[in-house]
Structure formats: C-alpha cells, structure tokens
Amino acid sequence: MLSYPITLTPDSNGTFLVGFPDFPEANSVGDDEQEALINAVDALETALEIYFDERRPIPAPSKPMPGQHVVSLPALETAKVLLWNEMSARQVRKADLARMLNVHMPQIDRLFDLKHSSKIEFVEQAAKALGKSLVVSLV
C-alpha cells in the first residue's frame, strides 16, 4: 500500500488543518483529529484525480517521521496509482493501453477513476500488458 505522511496542525478555532508534504495542493480540515484523518483520505484522492487529469506521474510517498500520521490508499487504488506511474514512465497513453488490451477507452477511463470499483483482474491484465505483474501480499 502507498502510505503518505500528513501534517496535522491545530488552529486557533480548535480545528485541525491537514497538509501533505508530497502533495502541496492537497489540504483538508477537521473539527477534531479523528475527523481530520478521515477528511485527509478524501483530500488525497482528490489530489490523485488532479494528477490523473493532468497526466502527471504520482509522487512516491516520502518517509514519515517517527510518530507522524500517514494516510494509506486502499489496495485497489494503490494498484491503479502504480499502474499509472508505470504508464507515465514508459510514455504509454491511455489510448495506447486501450489498444494493447483491445478494449474501448471508457474502460480505461474507469480504470483510472479512483471512485470506480475496477476488477483487480483488469488491473492485473493492464500491468501484464506493460510487462509487469501485480503482486499482492498480507503483512
């Protein structure tokens, strides 16, 4: 899983401000620490969608400092981000991937929609088309 460190800063109103060192454009707030952590997930997903829309590679998580909170992406979203970064590194466009998989573009668009519950088999198939394999483990 990809786990991104966050900053939690209490403000003068008693709320907590959330920031991401790896995503300056991702910010959130919560009435308390617990709500701020929940809202941080939405902020991260929104930032990732911006990167997808702008066709930019997703930054790898920086190493958190001891005791620093992190926000972890679910397994499917992690796989989508890793697949996206592999495509970016190889300069493979979504249209290229669609041709490689012999599917229509809407299927590829849904593949990189974090709110869409893609089948993990399709992510695995896309990785294979790029010469990679998807590895899942329990830790």
From TrEMBL:
- Gene3D superfamilies with a match to the protein in the record: 3.30.160.250
Matching InterPro entries? HicB-like, TA_system_antitoxin, TTHA1013/TTHA0281-like
**Membrane-traversing stretches:** none
Cite the HicB-like antitoxin of toxin-antitoxin system domain residue spans from the record: 4-63
Gene source species: Massilia glaciei
From the Swiss-Prot or TrEMBL record, give the protein name. Answer: Type II toxin-antitoxin system HicB family antitoxin
